[in-house]
């Protein structure tokens, strides 16, 4: 005859089932947290210049009243998407600055960067600057005489990452770069992007 201190068989089975369900719920919670921290974590894509070259460089600093600068910047840029879903960005602008003044601009056409991939862009910007068109003091003549110009660029993309092609998340990668242009050799030096 069974003693009353010992739980019955159905009661022991019920305890095991409840314990199994609790362990299963905890395992699922841990799995969700791990997925949320790895696969479902949305990262902002990286947007950078790889290289910049110059063509059609034309400077004029012989005039006593105004100096001018014209050139074409040819840039190789990349957008690196580390997300588990494609990144679609919309039209945006890449602007080139000389001493804080906009001297060139190009539209970066909308496109899509595939999951876990890198998209390469080729951008050409016509740069034009003339002291006669600028009010106030300009240092273009002295910069041309020194043989080096410091320029910067700025661009901000607006787009959306679709995690696992279903969960949309907005992301805006920004690119700010500085570069030194050697006018004698017609090359870009010290390209640095943040």
UniProtKB/TrEMBL annotation:
<feature type="transmembrane region" description="Helical">
    <location>
        <begin position="17"/>
        <end position="40"/>
    </location>
</feature>
<keyword id="KW-1133">Transmembrane helix</keyword>
<keyword id="KW-0812">Transmembrane</keyword>
<dbReference type="GO" id="GO:0098542">
    <property type="term" value="P:defense response to other organism"/>
</dbReference>
<protein>
    <submittedName>
        <fullName>Late embryogenesis abundant protein-like</fullName>
    </submittedName>
</protein>
<keyword id="KW-0472">Membrane</keyword>
<dbReference type="InterPro" id="IPR044839">
    <property type="entry name" value="NDR1-like"/>
</dbReference>
<dbReference type="GO" id="GO:0016020">
    <property type="term" value="C:membrane"/>
</dbReference>
């Amino acid at each position: 005859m069974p003693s009353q201190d010992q739980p019955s068989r159905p009661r022991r089975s019920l305890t095991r089932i409840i314990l199994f369900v609790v362990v299963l719920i905890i395992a699922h919670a841990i799995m969700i947290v791990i997925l949320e921290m790895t696969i479902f974590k949305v990262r902002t894509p990286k947007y950078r210049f790889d290289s910049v070259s110059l063509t059609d460089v034309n400077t004029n600093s012989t005039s006593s009243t105004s100096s001018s600068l014209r050139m074409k910047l040819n840039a190789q840029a990349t957008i690196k998407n580390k997300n588990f879903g494609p990144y679609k960005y919309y039209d945006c602008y890449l602007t080139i600055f000389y001493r804080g003044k906009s001297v060139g601009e190009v539209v970066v056409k909308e496109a899509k960067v595939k999951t876990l991939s890198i998209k390469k862009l080729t951008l050409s910007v016509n740069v034009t600057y003339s002291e006669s068109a600028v009010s106030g003091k300009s240092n273009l003549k002295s910069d041309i005489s020194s043989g080096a110009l410091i320029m910067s660029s700025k661009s901000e993309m607006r787009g959306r990452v679709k995690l696992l092609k279903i969960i949309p998340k907005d992301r805006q990668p920004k690119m700010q770069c500085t570069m030194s242009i050697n006018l004698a050799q017609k090359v870009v030096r010290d390209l640095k992007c943040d």
